[in-house]
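Q: Given only this backbone (346 positions), what sequence would you predict?
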C-alpha cells in the first residue's frame, strides 16, 4: 500500500474500533491529512476491499475491517503505549503486598476487567514444588482421589476420573511405584520420567497403572481450587452497549464457553510460543467457539523464568488494542515479579 491507502486503512480501522460503526468516504475526506475528493477516497476503499482488508457490512454502507485487516493493523500499524494512569492503577491494585497467591490472582482479574472495561481471564499457577509422597484413593468406579504431599509441607487433595477397570489394588501399586522414584521431583518431572520409563521398560510397567498415573496427574480436577484455576472477571462489561440481539446471543455463547471450559490448560498453551503479548482475532482464537471474539493474552513467569500462568482480556473483535495490549503486558510482568518475591506463598 502507498501512504494514502495506508492512512485510509488505518482511519477505517481506528474509526471502527472507536465507535463500532462503519466508516464512510465523506468522514474520511474530512479527516485525511491529504486533501482529496470523496471519489478518490472511495476508489482507495475499493482497492482495500479487493485486497480483503475491509468490507461493507450492508449495501451503501461505510466500511469496517475484516479479520485479515484487523490482523494486519495489529501486526503493522498498531501504536500501543501504556498510559501513566493505567500504570498507576495496575500497580496500586495488583502491586500491593500480598502473600496469598489466590488473593493476588483474584485481584489481578478484577484490576484487568476494571481498567480495560472488558472481561478478564487469569490462569492461576499450579503448585509446582517437589513432591514428598503420593496416595491414590478409590472413591467410586469413576472417581478417585490423589493426595499430594509436597516437600514444603503443602498438601493437596485432587479428584479425577481414573481409566476404566482400575481397582484399589492397582492404585496402591501405582502409588508405591511413584513414591519409589519421587526423589524430590515435581509433577511435571514425574510425567516426563514416566514417559521415559514406559519407553525403556514397557514390559516391566503395568500399562493400566501407567494410564492411571498419566491421566490422574495430567488431567485432574481440583476440588479445593488449589490447582490451575481460570478466573473470569468483568463479564458484565461485555454487555454494556450491546443492545443488538445478535451481539447478545454471541456474548451468551461466550459465557457458555467460559462456564463449561474444563480443559483450561489450552489457555496457557496459547502463550507458549514465546514471551510477550499474543493477540488472537476471530477464528484465530481456538480456545472459544465464538469466532467474533478477540483474546489478548500474555504469560507470566516464576523466578526460574518458567511460564506458570497467563493473564488476558477477551471481548468482541472491536477491542481497544492500543490500550489493552500494553495493559495486559505490564500486568503479566508485574504478576511475574510478585510471584518471584520471597514472601509469596501458593
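A: Predicted residues:
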Amino acid at each position: 500500500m502507498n501512504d494514502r491507502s495506508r492512512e485510509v486503512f488505518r482511519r477505517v480501522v481506528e474509526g471502527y474500533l472507536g465507535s463500532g460503526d462503519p466508516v464512510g468516504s465523506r468522514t474520511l475526506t474530512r479527516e485525511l491529512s491529504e486533501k482529496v475528493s470523496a471519489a478518490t477516497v472511495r476508489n482507495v476503499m475499493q482497492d482495500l476491499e479487493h485486497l480483503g482488508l475491509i468490507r461493507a457490512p450492508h449495501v451503501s454502507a461505510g466500511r469496517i475491517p475484516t479479520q485479515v485487516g484487523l490482523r494486519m493493523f495489529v501486526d503493522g500499524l498498531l501504536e500501543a503505549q501504556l498510559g501513566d494512569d493505567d500504570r498507576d492503577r495496575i500497580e496500586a491494585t495488583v502491586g500491593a503486598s500480598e502473600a496469598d497467591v489466590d488473593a493476588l490472582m483474584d485481584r489481578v482479574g478484577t484490576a484487568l476487567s476494571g481498567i480495560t472495561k472488558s472481561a478478564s481471564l487469569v490462569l492461576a499457577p499450579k503448585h509446582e514444588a517437589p513432591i514428598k509422597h503420593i496416595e491414590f484413593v478409590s472413591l467410586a468406579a469413576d472417581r478417585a482421589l490423589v493426595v499430594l504431599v509436597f516437600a514444603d509441607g503443602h498438601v493437596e487433595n485432587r479428584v479425577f476420573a481414573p481409566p476404566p477397570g482400575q481397582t484399589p489394588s492397582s492404585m496402591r501399586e501405582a502409588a508405591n511405584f511413584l513414591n519409589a522414584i519421587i526423589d524430590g521431583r515435581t509433577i511435571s518431572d514425574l510425567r516426563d520420567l514416566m514417559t521415559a520409563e514406559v519407553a525403556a521398560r514397557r514390559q516391566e510397567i503395568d500399562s493400566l497403572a501407567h494410564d492411571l498415573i498419566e491421566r490422574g496427574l495430567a488431567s485432574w480436577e481440583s476440588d479445593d481450587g488449589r490447582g490451575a484455576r481460570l478466573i473470569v472477571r468483568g463479564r458484565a462489561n461485555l454487555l454494556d452497549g450491546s443492545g443488538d440481539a445478535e451481539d447478545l446471543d454471541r456474548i451468551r455463547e461466550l459465557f457458555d464457553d467460559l462456564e463449561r471450559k474444563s480443559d483450561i490448560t489450552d489457555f496457557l498453551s496459547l502463550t507458549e510460543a514465546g514471551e510477550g503479548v499474543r493477540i488472537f482475532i476471530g477464528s484465530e482464537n481456538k480456545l472459544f467457539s465464538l469466532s467474533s471474539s478477540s483474546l489478548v493474552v500474555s504469560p507470566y513467569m516464576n523466578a526460574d523464568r518458567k511460564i506458570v500462568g497467563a493473564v488476558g482480556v477477551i471481548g468482541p473483535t472491536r477491542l481497544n488494542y492500543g490500550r489493552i495490549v500494553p495493559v495486559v503486558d505490564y500486568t503479566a510482568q508485574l504478576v511475574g515479579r510478585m510471584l518471584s518475591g520471597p514472601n509469596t506463598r501458593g
